[in-house]
Amino acid sequence: xxxxxxxxxxxxxxxxxxxxxxxxxxxxxxxxxxxxxxxxxxxxxxxxxxxxxxxxxxxxxxxxxxxxxxxxxxxxxxxxxxxxxxxxxxxxxxxxxxxxxxxxxxxxxxxxxxxxxxxxxxxxxxxxxxxxxxxxxxxxxxxxxxxxxxxxxxxxxxxxxxxxxxxxxxxxxxxxxxxxxxxxxxxxxxxxxxxxxxxxxxxxxxxxxxxxxxxxxxxxxxxxxxxxxxxxxxxxxxxxxxxxxxxxxxxxxxxxxxxxxxxxxxxxxxxxxxxxxxxxxxxxxxxxxxxxxxxxxxxxxxxxxxxxxxxxxxxxxxxxxxxxxxxxxxxxxxxxxxxxxxxxxxxxxxxxxxxxxxxxxxxxxxxxxxxxxxxxxxxxxxxxxxxxxxxxxxxxxxxxxxxxxxxxxxxxxxxxxxxxxxxxxxxxxxxxxxxxxxxxxxxxxxxxxxxxxxxxxxxxxxxxxxxxxxxxxxxxxxxxxxxxxxxxxxxxxxxxxxxxxxxxxxxxxxxxxxxxxxxxxxxxxxxxxxxxxxxxxxxxxxxxxxxxxxxxxxxxxxxxxxxxxxxxxxxxxxxxxxxxxxxxxxxxxxxxxxxxxxxxxxxxxxxxxxxxxxxxxxxxxxxxxxxxxx
Length: 630
Description:
With 630 residues, the chain is of the alpha/beta class. The protein has helices at residues 3-10, 24-40, 99-104, 107-113, 127-144, 191-202, 234-243, 300-305, 313-336, 345-354, 357-367, 377-381, 392-409, 417-437, 443-462, 467-478, 530-538, 602-618, 621-629; strands spanning 15-20, 46-51, 148-152, 156-159, 164-167, 172-174, 177-181, 206-208, 226-230, 250-254, 257-261, 268-273, 482-487, 490-494, 497-501, 509-511, 513-516, 543-547, 553-559, 566-568, 574-581. The strands form six sheets. It has a six-stranded mixed β-sheet, with no helix packed on it.
């Protein structure tokens, strides 16, 4: 800091910035704040307050206080909090260790002290390991900040018109700038969920609505009794773990086959869903040079060519998505595994480009002899579609075979076309995000077709569990602890019991307990957070209330923010000193998960831009005038 900077800073009172939410988003934003502070802050004193009932760093989801049996859904090599040479941003790059590097280096002693086993780069570690990494990153960021940092382990309940943040304890913090970096929000039950809870209570049944599994009370799911579970994704996997190993069971392995040894405290889990199958296991291999590439058919230019205004997802975007995924699959198959094809890639690609369904179907039949090498999105999405099993035992045998085949395929690089589809999904998501931001999709299409159907397909194919978890699922099935209930699972109450029926499997399942194993649909208008509810009621924040074309309510949308992440008020004006980031905010990048190293994560770019904007707002008045004059 120069003498001139010191003189300027003396002329300005200290600035105060309050972050509501102390999870990974705030950590990443403060890392970028520290990176550009020397350039932009001008030596002004800054007080930073972080308000969160959970410890800063991990926040609620990545807190240390959770079961060590719960795993991350990413490999250690796929997670970083720090920028690297791939990130395109205005602020300086300040390298730091990704999770895999940290585990093998500075984190080794920390993990040993915490009683956690080290994890290799291809491992899916316990969430507690990520909690330790985030706590370490938080400490490093705090050391680098040219500011005092105070954490408050409580909830913010109000933001006054004169910008005082009121905490649950009654403490008040006068703020120059407030950043709401809230994670996944608790919400009021839907009308359907409230009705289920009332009917279950009246019948003496146990009903567990959608929720974050680590926070759900499972004590009323009794040993040996049937439990109907609807949902076959990550929430179910967590539930399965907590109700088996979490109740004292354990696994043995002999000749490569996993066996489960029950403790006797486990309930019997009947699990089903719309698809009736678990999410695909995460890919267990990498292929050099294989990474997301720009889309070929679903491009901004292609959408612009469809005309101005709102597009129809089903008729205009969905065919381009199908074509994009199909191209990615077959390009990899033909170029990396030509011995399994009969045509040259240019010949096949020419037919694909023309996209005449009947001609293309004939080309696939002739050029790709093995059905296991073919790609049809609808068949991938619904592998049990059109099948009916009169015998439940037979259905369970078939589904166990489907899971076994998936496990073998997801570790076999000879099926690298699956990796190409995964990368194409990431690229498609980027284009859809732009289309939504630019208003090219109706609210109905966004909620029903993108946020529900498309996101569901993406999660099913690309965001499934570690392979080991599906091996455990099969072991639990062999032990009689997990049973497969079937697709299109419908649940009702009959004669004071829950009754589940599947469109694909004969016979019904009766139980005293029913669990909806999924996260609740985000809806900021239904959020229980008192701070948000107050700001929405007063008009300081705005959110869409979404309706279908026929007038049916689609619930609440996301909080509105401008391109600089500043809050948009109910009257359409922009709040100059209230910033919004996180999964419940429109245009908030990188909210779906951690950035991967060397991937130019969108969250890094946005964090950097917002951090630099905050610094410019906080800089001394003299420095601002100098910049304006120049």
